[in-house]
Amino acid sequence: MDGLLELWTYLSDVTHWSGPSGIPTRTIQHVWMTTLALGTGVVVAVPLGMWIGHRRRGSLLAVNIVNIGRAIPAFGILALVFIATERIGFLPSYITLVILSLVPLFVNTVTGIEEVDPDVVDAARGMGLSERQVLWRVELPLGMPLILTGFRLAFVDVVATATLAALVAWGGLGRFIIDGFAQLDQGQMLTGALFVALVAVVGDRLVLWAEAAASTGPRGN
What we know:
By secondary structure, this protein is mostly helical. The chain has helices spanning 2-12, 23-55, 59-67, 74-85, 90-114, 118-126, 131-161, 174-182, 186-220.
């Protein structure tokens, strides 16, 4: 109960809702970094995953290599990137989040494309479609639900891990958690945790909606 009271006290203070350190600003920073990192991850991982999945050769090796990243804790990746870049703030945070997003995006894209029914693919080729057309018109739409599942997993990972960016002097909602811990301010820490959870839940629902639309769309045509 004391924690809830401190949370309410912190949230009810109007000074915490304005300025560069206010809740709206920190939330926007968190969402912006998450969106930027995920966007970069999509640009890198999805086309590569589509190509490997379409070829249906070398996918097992590629997925196993990428999965090595799962064994490295997010804090470890951040520490390695920080040492490699010798920077604080945006750059190590951004690189770390992009790396974390690559694994689920790549693995699910490869799997989604590769698991399309071979008979459907052969039929498309028999109709005269080029390999490029088969990939974009047949395999990608049918594999989209699984690709979006990978995006959903990547989103949750990135939103949660973006809080660690505060350890290398970046902003976002992690600042409330790190600063609150340093100041023994439970209300501030709980505020950071609450808004990270809210961002994660809202984003997760939106991706679930897109995933459901992708699953039902082809049947409606």
